[in-house]
Amino acid sequence: MIIAVDGPTASGKGTIAKALASHFGLPHLDTGQLYRAVGRQVQLNGGDPDDADAARAACAFPDALLDDAILRSEEVGGFASRVSVHPDVRRALYDRQRAFALQPGGAVLDGRDIGTVIAPEAEVKLFVTASVAERARRRWLEMQGRGIDVPLAEIERDIAARDARDMGRKDAPLRPAADALVLDTTHFNREAAIEAAIEAVRTRLAAR
Ligand code: DC
């Protein structure tokens, strides 16, 4: 069983994917982490994330980079979004994601194009979303919790810019697959969102 969880930044898709993996006993891959590693490697190389050659060269990042906490920073997230528009970067990361999806027993993957490009045959596809204002509020709370004080308006601007880039790129833009179930978590807390996702998977599996 492959479960594809796609959605925009700060929608709760990572939390939901992790919870589904643990509930259904499946391995989980956060594919955004791969793009973040490429973004970070460009930064370490002193390169420009908008330059296709610099981004391609950064795909040879060492695996240890995936465990670096700095990948979770807003700055690296922005770099990740910028390198992810280059088709060569998407191609370079494809095999790794595809192999993870196809492992015996199944897997949960979360990202932007899992249901549309990486695993279009996935048995269950969820598209997790929430309003920009709510996603900004969640990100703001999370950053406050880490002692980082950034104005809410700035976070909202960044999220809107990231959405526009992720949805507007030519290659594998962020969009729900035709057969995806859209889960809007704007009015859900964490527990309710997880419960709704588990229920959605159960319903999909029962209908097979
Ligand atoms: O999910 P995230 O915030 O960690 O992702 C960071 C960026 O990586 C995101 O803005 C776009 C890119 N990305 C992508 O293009 N395709 C994916 N499957 C996952 C992430």
What is the gist of this entry?
The protein has a single domain (2-207), classed as Rossmann fold (3-Layer(aba) Sandwich), CATH 3.40.50. Helices cover 53% and strands 11% of the residues.
Q: What is the secondary structure topology, with strand pairs?
A:
Layout: E1 2-6, H1 13-24, E2 28-30, H2 32-45, H3 52-57, H4 74-83, H5 87-101, E3 107-111, H6 114-118, E4 124-129, H7 132-145, H8 152-168, E5 181-184, H9 190-206
Parallel strand pairs: 1-3, 1-4, 2-3, 4-5
Helix pairs in contact: 1-9, 2-4, 7-8
Characterize the structure shown.
This protein has one domain (2-207): Rossmann fold (3-Layer(aba) Sandwich), CATH 3.40.50.300. The chain is built from nine helices and five strands. The chain has helices at residues 13-24, 32-45, 52-57, 74-83, 87-101, 114-118, 132-145, 152-168, 190-206; strands at residues 2-6, 28-30, 107-111, 124-129, 181-184. The structure holds 2'-deoxycytidine-5'-monophosphate (DC). 2'-deoxycytidine-5'-monophosphate is lined by residues 9, 31-32, 35-36, 77, 80-81, 84, 111-113, 162, 166.
